[in-house]
Fold this protein.
Amino acid sequence: MCEQVRRPWSGSMPSQQVCPPLQKPPPTSTRCSTTSTLGDRMRVIGVDEAGRGPCIGPLFVGAFCLPKEDEHLLEELGATDSKRLRPAQREAMAAELRDLGARRGWGLAVQPLSPTKIDAAVEEKGLNRLEVEGFVEAIQAVWTEGVDHRLVLDACDVDAARFGRNVDAGLAAVGLISAETEAKHQADAENRVVGAASIVAKVERDAWVRSFIDESGIDVGSGYPSDPKMKRALPSLLQGQRPHEDLRWSWATTKRGWEEVHDRPAPVRTEARTTVQRRLFDPPSS
């Protein structure tokens, strides 16, 4: 298995390639399919994200890919929604997934979406568009040529059908067509492959938080706005001429904190500092 992980520690660490080690709405779903010509040669790709709500650090998109006939192995391992597992259980499960995946030729990728990219997306067209890009890039990283793929996506958009169509459009723009795409809410709790993706994404998010705390000496807890540790840490991250680079400047929590410290509106951040960087593709919104 070839595991691709991109970790922008403090927003600057380059991509790494390792070969191997390895509040949601009610559930809704959509399923789009094309005619498969390859019979049983089908791979299933599950995709989920971790870290959407925190006001600091990247959002991580995880993709997990395996042959359809291997899905039962994830059930035997107990792969499930990462939120159902304690941190130590997630770490152990991620290690098991990497080990078994290395022996069976599974694919795993974790795509980080940096705070700068998140801020640019919020200021431009919304976070959902950036998440679509992250899902497409993670799927590309585990795509296997010469076989059909069934995609199961934990939809980030309130409209699951729209999210699935947008991911399909993004994939089509780079020449990839799935045999079937299912986008649904709470897919990580209902589908083992998406559960595996949620685990590896959450483990990477947790690792980023630990690294930030170790390097900065500032304990942000989970990074969520409601976390008491994050609340105590925020003023120290807003003391400079600009908010700390790892904060999400576009979050209401950050903006309010900045105004309290500096008595003026918070600065706006885009990828190019003055304009939002052009997207690789612009999928339809409906």
